[in-house]
Amino acid sequence: MLHVGIVAGETSGDLLGAGLINAIRDLRPDLRVEGIGGPRLADAGCRILFPMDRLAVMGITEVMGRYLELHSIRTRLGKYFIDNRPDVFIGVDAPDFNLGLEKTLHNAGITTVHFVSPSVWAWREYRAVSIRQSIDLMLSLFPFEEQFYRRHNIPYKFVGHPLADELPLYPDKLAARRKLGLAGDRRIIAIMPGSRENELRKMTTPFLQTARQCHQKDDGFLFVTGLVDEKAKNYFLKKKELIAPELPFSVFTGNSHTVMEAADVVLLASGTVALEAMLLEKPMVVAYKLSWLTYALARLMLTIPYISLPNLLAGRRIVPECVQAECEPGRLTAELLKWFDNQSAVADVECRFRQLHAGLRMDANKQAAAAVLELVK
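Predicted structure:
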């Protein structure tokens, strides 16, 4: 029997981890999996040891507020896996949690893999030493990361991105609208405030205020959002009733890809959702807010000119980024409406997105599964 330990810390990691586990199971049906994950990993046969939502936190000061709880979970999990040794441990993203756990397990002689490179090429490059001491293999989703890992002599494999394999190279906006029961001829703006609880609380208010301003300028817009679960939906709807009860808004849960595919333009919180919107060829406005201390520290350590994956992959600014003070309704509204006023720019960005999409389609789950099994062997 092949025993795999795994930790995914948020919704995107749950999705990526489940795809990898299912691909490993195709090659090794005698698979036993346990660790931390969400509903996707549970459906893939993972025995859940701790709830995933306790790990879904981002930002330096935000993590500090939950440090004792996170430290306790990591300590208990490390002891569990040392006492019940897996053949391989896979940390899926969540580097601030997983790399420390991986180092503990690696020092105990357990083979460790990290799936999804942390953004060490963007900031905190000094972590390369710790990464090299903590893992046996880094599975990377993006080609621009290769230079960093080769320079620091860290075992590395670029496998492509599973979402690029999953999402169609030619999205069908009208089919998505039919699936959601949306009018085919409306101009639709998708509002995507994020899947983490702290993201939702920071981004929902400015995003709803932006939607209200767009509606005031043109009442022909229809707004949609795709939220991670009913808890997030209830929070969003309460905020909507306080901020913009008059807005024509369709709210969905659990099908964010279809929601974005149905839209003309997307307003989103920076993160994996920006990659998803890119793969769906959607013009977008990327926004983000952090606590003032987290932002100040990040600004000191950042070594890249962009925060969004579409811009990083393209190597230039092809979508607007509105961060911190610029994440305010007036600026966001102006950037959103620019897409509707410039169809030539929309066509250009759709073409570039399709090229980037094709470059990430590599049958990622199969490649990653083969790399894990080769390492175990």
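Summary: Residues 179 and 258 are 8 Å apart (CA to CA).
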